Amino acid sequence: MIGNDVIEVYDEVMKLGKFNGGNVEMQAGGKRDIGATVLDFMVGVFQPLVPAIAGAGILKAMLSLLTLMKLMSATDAWYTVLYNAADAALYFLPVMVAVTMSTKLNCNRLVAVASAGAMILPGMTTAVGEGLTLFGFTVQNIAYTYQVFPAILTVALLYFVEKGVTKISPKPIRVFLCQWCVLSL
């Protein structure tokens, strides 16, 4: 049992070798090529999502074809189940992006999921639709489902807040303080 020193032990183990499987090429002098770094990051975030998105698209295309050929009706129970199963991969895309991006950035995955999930909660959608105001600014009424950019910004914010709070907070309350700061933002 490591206790409250988990973060320090993890950082030391990570210094021993590269465990995340990244393939970013180093230039002469130890500098990273910016294009390779950006491409590695984008591939790391979006490549794991391809099977879910492609499967959802193929299933929706097949459902459209079956209804066009009159082999299935859009009012059938089986159609409804399959359509919603396909739609789930796209509806929850912000949550899936939060998982892959937090994995790539090596920050807390469950807090990333909770942060991205908060954007698509029905209660939050209703509050924003009614004119939610934060810090004097009216939050734009945008449907965050099916979108990746808000989730990317949320997890990027999580990464920097988590990193900063980890440095300044006492070890016994670090986990709670860090997660509270991130979720309250």
Question: Would you give an account of this structure?
Answer:
This protein is mainly α. The protein has helices at 6-16, 34-46, 50-68, 77-91, 93-105, 109-120, 122-129, 149-168, 174-184, and strands at residues 133-134, 137-138. Strands 1-2 form a two-stranded antiparallel ribbon. α5 (93-105) packs antiparallel against α6 and α8 packs antiparallel against α9 (174-184). It is globular. The two termini are 32 Å apart. Residues 22-28 have low confidence and may be disordered.
Rg: 21 Å
Given as residue ranges, the uncertain stretches (5+ residues, pLDDT < 50) are 22-28
Q: Output the strand order for the largest sheet.
A: 1-2
One letter per element, helices H and strands E, the order comes to HHHHHHHEEHH
Task: Summarize the helices and strands and which ones pair or pack.
Elements: H1 6-16, H2 34-46, H3 50-68, H4 77-91, H5 93-105, H6 109-120, H7 122-129, E1 133-134, E2 137-138, H8 149-168, H9 174-184
Antiparallel strand pairs: 1-2
Helix pairs in contact: 2-5, 3-4, 5-6, 5-8, 6-8, 8-9
Give me a quick take on this structure.
This protein is an all-alpha fold.
